[in-house]
Amino acid sequence: MLRILHDTNYDFIRWWKVMAGITVAFILLGLGSLAIKPPNYSIEFTGGTLMQLEFTQPPDVGEIRSALDDAGIHGAEIQQFGSNRDFTVRAQNPSQVAAQAKGAENIAVTIEAVLKKKFGENSFKAGRTEAVGPRVGQELKRGAIVAILLSFLITLVYLSIRFEWRFATAAVIATSHDVFTTIAFLKLMHLEISLTVVAGLLTVLGYSLNDTIIIFDRVRENLRKGRKETLYETLNRSINETLPRSVLTHATAFAATLALLFFAGEVIRPFAWVMAFGIVTGTFSSIYVAAPVLIWIERKWPRKTGARQSSSTATPTSRTRRSPATATR
After folding, report:
1. pLDDT at position 123, please?
2. Which residues of the chain have pLDDT under 50?
3. How far apart are CA 155 and CA 295, in angstroms?
4. Coil, strand or helix: which one is 191?
5. Which of 72, 49, 63 is nearest to 119 (CA)?
6. Does the domain at residues 13-39+137-327 carry the CATH identifier 1.20.1640.10?
7. CATH number for the segment(s) 48-132
8. Alpha carbon of 235 to those of 19, 308, 329: distances in Å?
9. Residue 37: what are its φ and ψ, rounded to 5°?
10. How many CA atoms, within 13 angstroms, populate the side-chain half-sphere of residue 243?
């Protein structure tokens, strides 16, 4: 059996202030970008029409745009993807979105007819067509927000029963961190927020939460052993003991995600980007967010278990340094 990073004794939590500064700066950068320009929502949330077109010959984008403008479809977003013959056309003009409520396929039919008239009857084929009315878009946006909030609530209740409220609160705060960093990542990368991306975000939350629970479960086991060590030391010990499992799991998941990112195509690529970043931020929050928050909660609301608990919440700076032989397992 492959054995890596066994019997390590790294002081991970020592660097939590530096890591907190880095992640706060990243989140503020993303939120600042949101304040300047709103996120790029897909038609699933805003309403509108999306078509993927494959032309037989590379067309002139200017000609596509002028043909749509002449037909009254103004402000359409035209993007090339894949080869120079593949394009996506997004019609998200408010007046056109309102027209979707009367007939969701009307704009798509108009776009196809206009382009066939301009480039010829067999000049292209529509590979994918999506049309969403404004009411459906608002319902999907509301449903996505509710899904994320429900995941937080269920997590809090489950961990409160499975562990206790201190562990549950630390895990939810760490998971909230993942939401904010992922939103900042989406904005800074100019990725479109679609239902696929929301699915990726929920997957990231589950992945990060699973990693946090594994560490917390080892913390609980070590606390039950009654070692004469601080909670700071117990958390570091638990992170080190789960490190081999974490490295193998994260490396495997990240390799699979990279395969999707590079070879799965345009449709699945946003999901792969979210998952790739989520593996990084989920690992980060399990160590540098959940653990320090748990220490802070224990200091603020210590358990009533006498001297054992009061000593368990101390940090290495408030106790006498032990010899290396005592510090190792």
Report:
1. 85
2. 1, 104, 306-329
3. 20
4. coil
5. 63
6. yes
7. 3.30.70.3220
8. 17, 16, 14
9. -140, 130
10. 18
